[in-house]
Amino acid sequence: xNKLIAAAALAACVFSGAAAAGPTPAxxxxxxxxxxxxxxxxxxxxxxxxxxxxLRYMGVAPRGxxxxxxxxxxxxxxxxxxxMDQEIPSDRNHLHYGAGETETLLELPPGKHTLQxxxxxxxxxxxNPPVYSKKITVIxx
Length: 141
Known about the structure:
DUF4399 domain-containing protein, mainly beta, elongated, 9 strands, three-stranded antiparallel sheet, 1 helix, six-stranded mixed sheet, DUF4399, about 140 residues, signal
């Protein structure tokens, strides 16, 4: 009876389109982090500030390059993580660094903002398991 229930649950997930993450594997211990600025840091308004991307136990490769245990950064600004089984959006809240960049200059309007990194594979889809940083807050004054 338990096998029947497990099979039904699996079928429900498959047919509902639910998926935990994309098809590209990532090392289970990989993680991304924002090296700068720090959580809660005040950054100056009216001029760009540096955001430094960190990554452990994976490598960085440009979009379109399919190599094991690599991906490229996406910076999420003032938004939550997107669906993990779909291409990461490209808009003012989801910035793509498909050339393999590991830092950027960012200018934000005054106020409180959140930043978070999410790794994408060669097709901008999160890895399995997803590799992302904790969300930090910066204050632009």
